[in-house]
Amino acid sequence: MAQEKFRVGLTPGFLGEDGKVRFKDVGLDLLDKEPHIEYTFIATERPYVPPDEVGGLDAFIALGGKYPRETFEEVDRLTLIARHGVGYDNVDLQAATEADVMIAIAPSGVRRPVAEGIIGLMFALSKNFFAYDHATRAGTWREGLETGVDLIGRTLGSVGLGNIGTEVFRLLQPFGMRFLTFDPYVSPEVAKSLNVEVVDLPTVMRESDYVCVTCPLTDETRGLIGEKEFALMKPTAFFINTARGPIVDQRVLTQVLQEKRIRAAGIDVFEEEPVDPNEPLLKLDNVIVSPHAIALTEECYRDIGRLNCQKAIQVSRGEIPDNVVNREVLEKQSFQEKLARYREGA
Fold first, then answer.
1. Among the options 273, 298, 319, 337, which is catalytic?
2. Domain 6-105+297-345 maps to which CATH number in 2.40.50.200, 3.40.50.720, 1.20.1270.10, 1.20.1250.20?
């Protein structure tokens, strides 16, 4: 009797309107080379990925979607959900662990794209790119326009010094800036190697000319930046959030920008996504906004896609992939037995 194939599912967001993969490379050729693996695209992921879509799968590659407890109800076969990125706040980790499902992320795939996006926003805000573009189109020449600023000699503060924060500081080394970070879990050696001063959050908010949020969304960081923190910022400072919307009190940020208590902001993430088109923040001219897409490059899709396809291949061989976030599942006897079945069939 032929061995049953290892089944991999992918979210429908990978497909265009024509039903074809809409990205140049997401690593599917890696799966094509494995005769014991077959893959398919599920039909729906809204309002959440339902159990009937993943129940017959061994691994799932998740570009989007939500994975509450309902996703894992009576799901016995599924062993891996590989997230397309580093965030996992859309997954009920406890329910996944109870169902013997690993949740894995791909930090190396987003490190450079997000860091470049943050620096891109820093330049766009500092040099007034959007204001100058609008003024030129409206027939206004240089007279009367607000001048931009240079990065040299200014202070960049990052809320978080993890995968992305360290890459931002690494890329900005030649710009002659002072670097600050607030991160209770930071490695002093890593900070020192990047010439980053480790300080408390009030110091970051008070002394930085650019405040960038790069930390993950957790119970500890939800609502971390609010009225008290914004009140410390310089009126000339810029605020950038490319991490997760709920880390920042969006209502307070909107009010701060309306009252011009800081110079401007660059926002890639929102408390509710997709953001409501009538959201007051979108009506302001001192904020650059984007639809949680600042890191969506060909290279990002390629690198994360290939990492996640490789994770699926590892699991098909009974191996544990890198960057499993709910590591307690690895200690469960029932999970180990599930993984052993793949080794026996390899």
1. 273
2. 3.40.50.720
pTM exceeds cut of 0.85: yes
Which tens digits make up the pLDDT trace of 238-265?
Answer: 999 999 999 999 999 999 999 999 999 9
Structure tokens at 147: 């001048």
| Whether the Cβ atoms of residue 76 and residue 27 lie closer than 8 Å to each other | no
Q: Out of 7, 111, 244, 306, pick the active-site residue.
A: 244
Instruction: Name the catalytic one among 83, 206, 263, 292.
Output: 292
- pLDDT, tens only, 4-55: 899 999 999 999 999 999 999 999 999 999 999 999 999 988 889 999 999 9
Q: Is the peptide bond before 202 cis (omega within 30 degrees of 0)?
A: no
Query: Coil, helix or strand for 292?
Result: coil
User: Is 273 annotated in the active site?
Assistant: yes
Q: Is 36 a catalytic residue?
A: no
